[in-house]
Amino acid sequence: MVYTDEQKKVAEHGGFAHDDTNVMLLVSHPGLKSHMVTTAVETTQVAPTILRTLGLDPMALDAVRIEGTRALPDLF
């Protein structure tokens, strides 16, 4: 859920409305370039992105290898 400073709920995750299926994700690390991704991405891309950012091999995850999941685009 996302609340504003007015304590009013403006979004709730879990439904199928546009605001529920398009959620914000902030990725911050000194080694990443500043970039806004506006294309559709999947939550499955979070783990490979974290591993790659930490200098670890995302292909060490079975799911990444089996599904061919890529890290978030244009961050590296």
Question: What radius of gyration results from the CA coordinates?
Answer: 15 Å
Low-confidence stretches: none
By secondary-structure content and strand pairing, the structural class works out as alpha+beta
Fraction of residues in helices?
Answer: 10-25%
Spatial shape: globular
% residues in beta strands: 5-15%
Cα separation of the termini: 29 Å
Q: How many DSSP-defined strands?
A: 2
Main beta sheet: 2 strands, antiparallel
Strand order of the largest sheet: 1-2
Average pLDDT number: 81
Instruction: Characterize the quaternary organization of these chains.
Output: single chain
> Number of helical segments?
3
What does it look like?
The protein has 76 residues and is of the alpha+beta class. It has three helices and two strands. It has a two-stranded antiparallel ribbon with strand order 1-2. The protein starts with a strand and ends in a 9-residue tail after the last helix.
Topology:
Layout: E1 2-3, E2 9-11, H1 18-21, H2 46-53, H3 62-67
Antiparallel strand pairs: 1-2
Q: How would you summarize what this structure contains?
A:
This protein has 76 residues and is an alpha+beta fold. It has helices spanning 18-21, 46-53, 62-67, and strands at 2-3, 9-11.
